[in-house]
Structures are given as C-alpha cells and as structure tokens.
Amino acid sequence: MFDRTFILVQQLRYNRELFTGLGLLIAVMAGWLIGNFGVMGGLITVGLPVALFFVVSILLEPKIGLLLYIHLGFALGFTRFVQSEIPFGLALDGVIMLTLLSVLFNAKRMNWKRLRHPVYFLLVFWLVYTILELLNPEAPYKPAWFYHARAFSLNWFYVGTIMLVLPITKDEIKLLIKTWLIWSFLAALWGFKQQYIGLAEAEERWLAEGNAKTHLLWGQLRTFSFYSDASQFGAEMASVTLFCAFRFLEEKETLRKVVYLSLALLFFWAFAISGTRSAFFVLIAGFPSYLVLSRNIKLMLQGAAVAIPLLAILLFTHIGDSNYHIYRIRTALRPGEDASFMLRLENQQKLKAYLSNLPFGAGIGTSADTGARFSPNHFAAQIPPDSWYVEIWIETGIVGLSIYLIMLLGIIGVGVYKVWQIKDPWLFKLMIALLADFIGIALMCYSNPTLSQFPTCTILYITSILFTTSERWDTKPQHQLFSA
User: ∠ CA 203-208-209 to the nearest 5 degrees?
Assistant: First the structure.
C-alpha cells in the first residue's frame, strides 16, 4: 500500500513538473508570437489548441467534420470583417479533407456498398472529365485549374462520398435542417440590419472595392447579409422561403403552421431586399415542382389558387411598383425589357462564336475572377460569364456542359424515382421539399453561380444525396409530424 502511494505521489510530482514546463514553453511561444505578429499572433496562440481539439474530434467522428463544414460555410462571409491575406477558404478544404480521412480511419463503421449508386457514378464521371481538362491545350495557366476544380467537381465528390457511406440517422437529418434554418434566420436579420439600419465599416469598404457597381443600383442597396454577394443571399432566402412555405402547407398543428408561415414571410421579404431578380425563379420552379411531386390533387389546387393570382398581378398589373423591391421582382418576368439581360445574351453570342471550335472549352480556371487573375489577356477572361452554366460552357466546352447538365438531370430523375417510393409520410414530405428546392436552384443557376458558392452549395450537395438515397430512412407509414 505504501509503495503504491509513493509511486502515485512521484507520478503526480512528475506530471506537475511536466505540465509546469509545458506551460512555460507555451507562455514563451505565445509571447514570441504576439511580440512578432501582434493581434494575429494572439489569434494563433488561442486558435492552435482549438484547432487541435477539432482535428482530434473530426478524426474520431467524421460527423463532427461534416457539421463543422456546414457551419464554416455560413461563417465564411464574415471574413470581410477580417483584413488579412489568410485564405480562409482553404480552411473549408482542410475540414472536408480531414473528414474524408476520418471516414477512411473509421472504415469499419461505414457502408461502402452505397457507393455503388447511380448518382455517385455521375459524380465520378464528371470528376474524371474535369481532371482530364488538365490536358486541355487551350488553358494558358495550368495551376488555375485547382481554383475552379473545387467548385466544379471536387467538393461535390467529397461531400457525396462522405454522405453516402456515413450511418446518418433521422435525428441527424433534423439537426441539418435546423442548422440551415437557424443560419438563414440570422442571415435574414443581418440583411434587415444592413437595409434599414446601415452597413458596418467593413461592408462599406467591401462596396468601395468595386462591388458598389452591382450592389448599389439607383441609390438602392442590394442587401447581401453575410453571404458572398446579393445574388447568393437572394437565392438562399428564396430557397428557405420555399421550404417554410411547404412546411406551412403540410403541417397540421396550428402553432407550427403559424411559425412556418411567419418564417416564410420573413424569408420572402429578405429575398426581396436582396434585389436578386433571378432568385425569383427558385420560387417559380420550386413551388410547382413540389406540388407535382406531392401527387396530392387537393394540394395542387390550393397551391395553384395562391400562385396563379400572384403571378397574374406581377405580370399584368403595376400594383406595388412604387415599392422598389416589388418593382425589381416584377422586372424578372419581363427579361426583354431588361438591358442587363440583353447584354448577357450579346455576350453569349460572342462566346458562341469563340467556342465553336473548342468542344472541350478554354480550360478550367480561364474565366471569371480566376481567369482575370491568372490569364487576363485570354479571351475567356474578357467576357463575364454571368451564369454558372455559361462559366462551365466556357471552361469545359459544349461537351463538359452537356455532361454537367446530364448529371443534374440524372440527380433529379433518380430523386423523383426514389421519393415516389417512400412510404413514411414525414420522410416523403421532407424529401420532396428538398428535391423541389434543388430544382429551383438548378434553374436559377442559368443567371448566377449559386451551385458553386458557400454555403448554398454545401447544403445542396448534402440534400442531393439525401433525396436520392431516401430509402435509407424509410419505414412503414407512421402518423408523425415533422419538427424542425
């Protein structure tokens, strides 16, 4: 007994000396970092232990990595408040790669058979095509490939792989939806603050850096909240408007109906102040898609009774034109009268002539901001794509665009087939809502690169796997209500 006590005392003394020495070492390092790098050094001192904690947590449980990836995608917009050259986007890449590594470390818990899935084959085929684009002789600067390939194919492939093999539960799906709605609610509040109270200094600086030409029109601010720009904010708000409207239609409990209706109205007004006309097509495509997918005649009639009069008012009257936001939404339905839309068509005609002899495009990384940065004199960098599909067309050619569109249509087709097999009413209503939302965003991307922008792309990558593999959570019909 005495010997054990003596050994324990010696161990405690040794550990105390060890931790004392470690503490002194950390204090010296912290002093050196702060002395040489100032505030950034202090942030590094605090951040390293936190980063180490998350690295270990992700390696132990890949679901933590996936959840952190979602949160970081939303928080990425706040980097405009940090005046630093640190590439914060690489942190997202690090998290998703670490999560993929964790999936491999925990391979025994994963269901690898799910990778034999039509949607995964589509993702892999598109990934292989984008990798082969490295051989495209038209690309003037090969390293630029890495900047656009992440948004083109890599991120979707990584997320798709993780989502397919992870043992996800219904409760975790609910957590995902709650996370999405909470962040969207905060984004709407931040947007209202920008519109009705004012911008922060960092946001005014962001506008002054060249973004005012697209976000200050006729003296009106296009609200962008903490998203990359007003276009993505508008798309996201239209997306959650749809989801909450669907939940309002399907809920039976009065309190829940009131909550979802209130959220739908709040998100719709947030969409309106974004001034993003193309985001209106998320609603135009998503709402009827949901009604058709529901295969509920009564719901179809109710939806049509609401939607048709609203569209008629926007199309054939000038009611509400005195309100700038309503007027701007109305112009989305009259593209022939929109100078910016006509300019886009002119640009596409120029690109058509240029790409006529380039079936594989000008190479990934040659257009948009990356093209302007690395190959500014290249023709592909001279004309703004103004569309996700046009950007893919420029960089991967008509062959690449065809493959990409086939992939999207394949995902939608598989999704329709899968959701129509669902027996669980809760799961069925949730999955057709997510599928309808995906259809709406896919149509809207004719005008904006939303499918490549965080955090919207992350949510879409995840939900595309959810509704195409929805049989994983199907059960016998149960009379249960969705609570998210």
Answer: 100
